[in-house]
Amino acid sequence: MLDQKLLLELETYLIDYFIMELEGCQSSKMMEECLEESSLRFELDAFIHQNKKPTLQEKLFQLIDEKGVTDADVYKKAGLDRKHFSKIRSKSDYRPKKNTILALALGLELDEDDTEELLESAGYSLSFSDTNDLIFKFFINKKIYDIDAVNEYLVYFSLKPIGSTI
């Protein structure tokens, strides 16, 4: 439920912001252009606010908290070293490779939906047209989270292993 007082403050703020934007417009033609530009900017801001999902870091550490495991448990099981994991944790603009995210999904023992959400937060997805992704989907659907077992099958199909060999 929305806090009505906060909503009123927000509406007042937006109106004040809108008026400040318009003060820079001199003529009526400029006023129209300013109104259109301000309206588009406001719509864009609203769209971003309504549709933005958590970042990789936010999603990863939310999942770690939900699973009740430690960072060390996850990165060790994922076959990642502490420095690489620390980089993921501390650099908000760092975007690890897809195989690193897949390794983390194994380390967290995620189901397919949570794996997809984690991948999406980094700008990736699992594809039905990629053999690597199909092998990975097969293993997570079978609830086999052993990175060494997954890597054996990836190598068998001449694909790049995930985890520490990245």
| Poorly predicted parts | none
What structural class should be given to the helix and strand makeup? mainly alpha
Order of helices and strands: HHHHHHHHH
Gross geometry: elongated
Q: Beta-strand percentage? A: under 5%
Number of helices: 9
How many angstroms does the end-to-end distance come to?
A: 46 Å
Count of DSSP strands: 0
For the sheet with most strands, the description reads: none
Write structural notes for this entry.
The longest helix has 24 residues, at 28-51. 68% of the residues lie in helices and 0% in strands. It is built from nine helices and no strands. The protein is elongated.
Keywords:
166 residues; mainly alpha; 9 helices; 68% helix; 0% strand
Summarize the SSE layout with pairings.
Layout: H1 4-22, H2 28-51, H3 56-67, H4 71-77, H5 82-90, H6 98-108, H7 112-121, H8 131-141, H9 147-156
Describe the structure in brief.
The protein is mostly helical and 166 residues long.
